[in-house]
Amino acid sequence: MAKIIGREEEIRELNERYDSDHAELIVVYGRRRVGKTFIIRETFRNKMTFYHTGLSPYDEKRKIGKKEQLEHFYHSLLQYGMAESTCPKTWMQAFYMLEELLEEMGDGERQLVFIDELPWLDTPGSGFVTAFEAFWNGWASARDNMKCVVCGSATSWIMDNMIDQKGGLYDRQTSEVKLEPFTLNECERFFESRGIDLSRFDIAEAYMAVGGIPYYLDKFSKGLSLAQNIDRLMFNRNARLRNEFERLFGSLFVNPELYMKTVRLLATKHCGFTRDAISKGIDMKGGAGLTKMLRALEASNFIQKYRPFDAAHSETLYRLTDPFCRFWLRFVEGQTKKDEHFWQHSQNLPALNAWRGIAFEELCLMHLEQVKYALGVSGIVSTQSEWTLRGDSNHDGAQMDMIIERADRVVNLCEIKCCNDEFEIDKSYDLSLRHRINMLQGELQKTQNVHMTFITTFGVKKNKYSGIVQKEVTLDDLFR
Predict the structure, then answer these.
(1) Calpha distance 238→473 (Å, rounded)
(2) What is the structure's pLDDT at 209?
């Protein structure tokens, strides 16, 4: 059995459902390339009664429709012991055949059916959803030994047809398992399992470039520097991920161009856009269609919805959070200079340092649990947001990377810095920090206290100005 990195809670849930004494319909979903199929295969190795995976409908060589999907399903039935007959012409017939096969194989023991990439089977006009409803509601759910695992990367389809479905599958799933990207800790363990020696600073930068996606991390090569690996993945003539952006969206969404257009828009502003601004930016009416699209992008971990500090006077914003998309759109798409060693040649350029600053902020936001643990506030109710106070004729504006407002009346005013060494606070920066503290204190209740907090790669250098810092969080803390 291959070594599974992390995923302890998900594996525990899958095993508990398998060991239960009643029928189980388990839905596993998450962003493409996050490792859904791998964890199911490895957890249920040698336990599968029937396994089928849909054909990608985005085959560049031919159009994949109902006929091809049914032929492929029929082939899977034959592989698992069904007597040769006539290929089904409808999904109703196909699931009747599956029922007959499972009844023939039944001996009272548990039966595990795994259908991978379920959304791909639902081609236009195929009647697949109705047939699957009939299979589960009319046959499988009445068998206490039946365990059915369905999986898919097309999160919008999973949400619409399985989790939030109001028809025949409403409230039928017995478990929902969403697989999230790796944390920094899991990335470190993953690289160690592959014998790849990278410092924590390099692992953090790798995360800032491709995120915690196992499929991408598995493309890194032993014996190469981080910069060499990124060049091989993104910038070489035959770079493995050079065309990944369009493939990614093409495999997830029915109308990928609109989703890519939205992501490209969000990539232009770090703090994000309001719903109305997105509607105007992509030239789409702000109705149910826009709601569905934004919800699908959020469920797939591409974007995040949030309200800035002082939400009473602020609209909800949507911002791009997927590291791979941010990196690809900034450095790969539209690159006019064909430099196969771009990342190695650009290490000290201002553009890369600017990117590192913003990407490290996103990295910290993705590891809020680790930040809170380092601050000792894991058990305290809190909310976090960005904070910007616009200046006027009476005072200068102020901006901080993150605010953590806690139920114990403390507000952590967080400054996030990505540096190659300890960060040093000088006199002018000390004055700037004190101005921000005073401005924020004016926005808070009199009972609340502001704690200046620094989240840095290697800590704050001790000098006569460093005393302003109440709490520190370092890169090592993010790896907990």
Answers:
(1) 40
(2) 97
Could you give the count of Cα atoms lying within 13 Å of 101 in the half-sphere of its Cβ? 26
pTM over 0.85: yes
The C-alpha atoms of residue 116 and residue 72 are separated, in whole angstroms, by: 13
E strands along 391-448, which residues? 398-406, 410-417
- Strands 382-389, 398-406: pairing is antiparallel
Inter-residue contact 457 to 201 (CB < 8 Å): yes
pLDDT score, position 182: 96
Query: Could you state, in order of their start, the residue ranges of all structural domains in the chain?
Result: 8-178, 182-366, 367-478
Question: How far apart, in Å, are the Cα atoms of 390 and each of 86, 273, 312, 396, 439?
Answer: 71, 17, 15, 7, 10
Determine the Cα–Cα distance for residues 141 and 24; give it in Å rounded to an integer: 7
What would the pLDDT profile of 46-68 be if each residue is shown by its tens digit?
999 999 999 987 666 667 899 99
Q: Read off the amino acid at residue 480.
A: R
pLDDT in tens, 138-180: 999 999 999 999 999 888 788 888 877 666 676 678 899 999 9
> Beta-strand (E) ranges in 276-381?
303-306, 317-320
Level-2 CATH architecture, domain 367-478: 3-Layer(aba) Sandwich (3.40)
Domain 182-366 has CATH 1.10.10: yes
DSSP state of 380: S
Which residues have C-beta within 8 Å of that of residue 343, sequence separation ≥ 6? 227, 230, 231, 234, 235
CB crowding 192-206: b at 16 or more within 10 Å, else e: eeeebebebebbbbb
pLDDT tens sequence across 102-120: 999 988 899 999 999 999 9
Give the residue ranges of DSSP H helices in 234-349: 244-252, 256-266, 275-281, 288-299, 323-327, 342-345
CA separation for the pair 321, 328 (Å, rounded): 13
pLDDT at 1 over 50: no
- Tell which CATH architecture fits domain 8-178: 3-Layer(aba) Sandwich (3.40)
Q: How many CB atoms lie within 10 A of CB 63?
A: 10
DSSP string, 15-82: HHHHTSSS-EEEEEE-STTSSHHHHHHHHTTTT-SEEEEPPPTT-SSS---HHHHHHHHHHHHHHTTP
Averaged pLDDT, 327-353: 89
**67 Cβ partners below 8 Å, 6+ apart?**
none
Question: Residue 390: its pLDDT value, please?
Answer: 58
Closest CA relative to residue 264, chosen from 335, 358, 354, 330: 330
31 CB burial (10 A radius; 0-12, 13-18, 19+) = buried
Q: What pLDDT sits at residue 285? A: 87
